[in-house]
């Protein structure tokens, strides 16, 4: 049977010239090359990574500044006057003991009104004024002496109150023997 | 030939799929690969002449396609773009194997005489495939690009960096050679 031209034959039988596609190994290799090493935070954030980084820096800075100020406040007195810090620890402990002892008596026995009780507290208004002055004038010996004097006066006052209370109601409880060391 | 071309063109590649590929979506790459891998593998197989080279070439070509997908302007040109990359990879591989496409003199080239003596034997797909397979590499390349990949003589001339007349000459000689081989097989049978 006469055949058509070479080109016509191929045109008419074109699909028959096709072989099967490639094996699955080709895609497997391609997929391996395409896979990113690991989706890091920057990858996931995409083009917003710069904004996110800026916000993160602001947040971290704010937290750091806050923590720094808190720490500075706590350590201020210690840095300003280390020897006064030791005295403060001693007197604070002594005054707190006395205040606790006074609070152990019934308020009817103590007979102090609320403003008087407030004045007896360790960190009263006078104390806060002195502390602020000392921070502003760290080398001022007069202020340091005034603070020590403040502690001593407070301890004297508390001792007197305790003595009177003890006389009024000796059986309430045994009070510690307070001794002046400074 | 036209049926095959139509089949490839009917592949549904949407702008959305191309956009997903541009965003690096591996699943989109896979869809693109699934749509084109069989047709492109056949180009590689015809051009390189063996399975190992065809697979390597296909893999390299698709890697380049994925990496350069940003350059693709729209889904409408995806088929021609992919095919051209694959063909370029095939030609590059052939050049690495020292296959050169040289100018030939076309004095003795006759016009297509396919219809003249084709009544003496019958073409078959298998016979033509076998005949093409044993053609010298230069002839085979020109014949494949013209008759199977449907590039014009002018386009092939640019691809191979030879003159258009050389492409025509090589095509005629390739076709003659195929005819001779198929005819011999017919006689033997």
UniProtKB/TrEMBL annotation, chain A:
Protein name: Anti-sigma factor
Organism, scientific name: Chitinophaga oryziterrae
UniProtKB/TrEMBL annotation, chain B:
Domain RNA polymerase sigma-70 region: 32-98
UniProt keyword annotation of Nuclease present: no
Keywords: DNA-binding, Sigma factor, Transcription, Transcription regulation
InterPro entries assigned to the protein according to its UniProt record, in alphabetical order: RNA_pol_sigma-70-like, RNA_pol_sigma-70_dom, RNA_pol_sigma70_r2, RNA_pol_sigma70_r4_t2, RNA_pol_sigma_r2, RNA_pol_sigma_r3/r4-like, WH-like_DNA-bd_sf
Domain of life: Bacteria
UniProt-listed GO biological process terms: DNA-templated transcription initiation
Every RNA polymerase sigma factor 70 region 4 type domain range: 127-177
Gene Ontology MF annotations: DNA binding; sigma factor activity
Transmembrane regions listed in the UniProt entry: none
Record NCBIfam families: sigma70-ECF (TIGR02937)
Protein family (similarity comment): Belongs to the sigma-70 factor family. ECF subfamily.
Protein name (database record): Sigma-70 family RNA polymerase sigma factor
Annotated organism of origin: Chitinophaga oryziterrae
Lineage: Bacteria, Pseudomonadati, Bacteroidota, Chitinophagia, Chitinophagales
């Amino acid at each position: 049977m006469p055949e058509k031209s070479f080109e016509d034959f191929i045109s008419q039988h074109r699909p028959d010239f096709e072989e099967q596609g490639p094996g699955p190994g080709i895609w497997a290799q391609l997929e391996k090359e395409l896979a990113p090493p690991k989706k890091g935070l920057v990858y996931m954030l995409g083009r917003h990574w710069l904004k996110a980084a800026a916000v993160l820096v602001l947040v971290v800075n704010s937290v750091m500044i806050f923590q720094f100020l808190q720490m500075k406040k706590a350590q201020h007195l210690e840095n300003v006057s280390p020897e006064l810090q030791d005295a403060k620890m001693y007197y604070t402990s002594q005054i707190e003991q006395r205040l606790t002892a006074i609070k152990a008596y019934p308020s009817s026995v103590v007979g102090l009104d609320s403003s008087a009780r407030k004045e007896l507290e360790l960190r009263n208004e006078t104390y806060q004024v002195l502390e602020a002055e000392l921070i502003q004038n760290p080398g001022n010996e007069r202020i340091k002496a005034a603070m020590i004097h403040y502690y001593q006066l407070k301890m004297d006052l508390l001792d007197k109150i305790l003595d009177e209370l003890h006389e009024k109601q000796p059986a309430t409880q045994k009070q510690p023997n307070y001794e002046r060391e400074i | 030939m036209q049926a095959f071309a139509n089949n490839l063109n009917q592949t549904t590649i949407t702008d959305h799929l191309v956009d997903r590929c541009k965003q690096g979506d591996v699943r989109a790459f896979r869809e693109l690969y699934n749509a084109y891998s069989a047709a492109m593998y056949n180009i590689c197989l015809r051009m390189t002449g063996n399975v190992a080279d065809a697979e390597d070439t296909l893999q390299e070509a698709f890697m380049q396609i994925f990496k350069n997908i940003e350059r693709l302007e729209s889904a409408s040109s995806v088929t021609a773009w992919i095919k051209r990359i694959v063909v370029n990879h095939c030609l590059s591989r052939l050049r690495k194997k020292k296959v050169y496409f040289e100018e030939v003199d076309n004095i003795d080239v006759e016009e297509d005489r396919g219809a003249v003596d084709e009544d003496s034997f019958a073409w078959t797909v298998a016979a033509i495939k076998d005949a093409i397979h044993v053609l010298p590499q230069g002839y085979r390349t020109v014949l494949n690009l013209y008759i199977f990949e449907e590039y014009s003589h002018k386009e092939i001339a640019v691809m191979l960096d030879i003159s258009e007349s050389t492409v025509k000459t090589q095509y005629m000689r390739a076709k003659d050679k195929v005819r001779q081989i198929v005819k011999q097989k017919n006689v033997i049978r």
